[in-house]
User: What shape does this take?
Amino acid sequence: MHYLIFNGSKIIIPLRNVFNMKNYTTIFLLFLGLLASCSNYAKLVKGSDYDLKWATAKQFYEEGKYVKCAELLEQVMPRFRFTDDAEEMSWIYANCFYNMRDYYSAVTAFQNFYNTFQYGPYAEDAYYYIAMCNYILSPRAELDQEYTTTAINDFSYFVAKYPNSSRVDECNEKIKELNERLAEKSYLSARLYYDMDQYKAAITALTNSLNTYSDSKFREEMMYLRLSSLYKYAANSVPDRQQERYQEAFEEYFSFSEEFPSSVYSKEARRIYISSAKFLNIDIQDTETTSDIQ
Assistant: This one.
């Protein structure tokens, strides 16, 4: 059995690996180099040479060592607050968090940067990244959509503030995508009322969603769900209110069938129409003939 001694401790090397001593030596030297590097960094962090810290932070940033770069910048930025280097420091600091995918910290850092240097050369990029951070933080439709709404507002502001930017088309596409997510959220909320047999609440939620997101991909289904909700609400109403509510369902059928004449829900919609007409004592044949003439 062979071994090396380091700081009074034995490092055991099995006999079968004697012929790999060269590899062990290389690893050992790398280990020593790592210790020396860590030691030098610790001295730098604890030291008071802020010019060296700034220079090293820039080097770390170029090397992709964003955690160490940010740590050093947190120390030096207050010292250079009113110098020509302040803007670059703040810019690199924000980018460190973005590159580390810490978007919560990044959006705050970019916002602070923009508020301080909104007339500088990095201002357009900074506001774009503010919007991008909120875009990335925007969750799936089932969850709270605060970041989605914020991202839409940020992208909209960017387009208005920098109309000649090469990123305008991209921002508009992301606004469209995020609006569709809000539409899905609205649809899911309305659908939940329907699934829970709360038809009055479903009618209100579906109507609001259709008005707010008129071009949503969920429009056809929401139109059908509103028709179905009106019908089921009528069926479950007290006798004194059924007449007017069946009438609403009956009239809603024409809006649905006119907009979606070949809908996958046509069969069910037709059943609602016939049932409502029967309750209202309406001759469907006469109604359809009149509709055809019109």
Observations:
- Strands lie at 2-6, 9-13.
- The first strand starts at residue 2 and ends at 6.
- DSSP finds 13 helices and two strands in the chain.
- Residues 1-11, 28-36, 289-294 have pLDDT under 50 and may be disordered.
